[in-house]
Amino acid sequence: MATIKTMLRILFTPAAAVMAAVLCALFLYMAERAIAHMPFVLMSTLGLSALLFLFCRRLYFSIYTALGVSVLLTAASVVKYRNKGFDLHIYDVVFTGTDASAFSFLLSEFTVLIVPVALALLCSLLCLGFMFSKDKKTGLAVKWRLGLAAAVLSLIPATYPLQAEEPRYFHYLSGFNASSFFVSLLDLKDAALGEDAASRFANRPPEEPFPAADACSSDISKPDIFIVLSESQIELGSIDRHGISQRFPSSQRSGDGKRRGLRVETFGGGTWISNFSLMTGLSSLEFGWQAPYLTTILENRVHRSLATELAGCGYRTAALMPMQHSFVNEGPFLESIGFEDILDYDQIGASQYAHEDRFYFEAARAFIEEHRANDGRPLFLQVQTMFAHSPYSDNMATPLSGEGINSGDPELDEYVQRVVQSQADFGWFLAQSKAEKATHPSIVLEFGDHQSFATKQILSDADPGFAMNDLRSRAYETYFTVHGFGVDLDMKPFDTAELDIGFLGVSLLDAAGLDKSPMFADLSALRERCGGQLYFCPDREAVDTHIGRRIASGDLVLQ
Fold first, then answer.
1. Cα(283)–Cα(278) distance, integer angstroms
2. Residue 283: how many CA atoms within 13 Å on its side-chain side?
3. Mean of the per-residue pLDDT values for the chain?
């Protein structure tokens, strides 16, 4: 007891508080790595302390609590950025923090990262609670405490680290882990005031609606269409280190033998962001800070999608997910954009979040066979895989035959082995479709949804232009492959210098020769006009006009 009293006497001194503040500032700077941002970080921390002091009148408790909160938020952001390529955001609390399936996934797959943060939080709460009970209230009048809080808070805007019109989205992509959470609080203001994509298009002149879609032709071929989302995968032939590209020179090629690059809009995580763009033909970047949360924000607001196009041509539409239906609200979102069946974690009988991909392909084949036995419609099925997802600390992959990779980075070696195994499983799925081409013609489109952090260092060493805060850098390049079985495919729609993922779905319709609604026909024309670039199209007005016409037609509802 005497030791605790001595510690409290030391902690409740100006010298100890100053020393704690200095140590905290050093930690925050190490996480931020931008000296110009530090005034904002420190003023935000001081502002929190002033607010706490205003209400509780306990000076040292307020100081240590504000320092502890800043440190814990920063540590959580470092963990998130390391695995997802996106800093901690207030909407992680608003959306992910209330998503039980997302919580379950994080605890299951990232236990080694989550548990230390949770223990640190618990210890901090216990220590701060004890400190609260021992720190005496000051006699400073409320008007002085209020004045102090008002003065500190009024200075924070002067230290804001971004230019007034600079998009905050790119700040969250840059690993500014000490400042991003505080910066993201402004997104709450924008949401409350309606300062988002909706307000931007509301201020434009109204566009002409798209004409109503004609009935789909009954005399065209309607092959089954399978889209495979190859989780966290890039083309192994693009990794020009440790002999990886030499060992796998022909990996991930289309049926015509060509390599094809794909531009995506997320790094290290956020599969649902890529899938959103694929299915809707919209760039997630149009929505700025809302991009990671669009499956929640835009549920029941996108009324024309790849799924509705194919359903209009008589297809049954289904998606197989390795996660629960409610995970990041993707199941309800996919249903709202026209998917008839969602086969989630529970329905496919999953027992863990990262089965070998053969498990997902076998579940898909079981569904395909059941469908063909009981339903006469052509089938559109997306299969999402999971085996190549992080973390890579567990040796889950089957060792490569012969000499291994031995890059010196165990996580990179594990990642490469998982991709190789996943591609072998995908090859099995392709073989099933090939064997049935005479009786069940099909198209299989496969794509990598984003890069993995396992390859970040090796690719950035090879390419000085590799940058996660530049969405046109190599960090946002994956691949796609297309295979036709019993079908004549027109590959020209895929052969642009760059193809953004928002154009991938309409390019598939073009390649298959399927009918398109006027909206998707306009999207196809936009691809040609923009050279395969969507958000970064040189003719930005053409993109805005297309989106405006979607809104005018009721195909996209922004509020």
1. 9
2. 24
3. 91
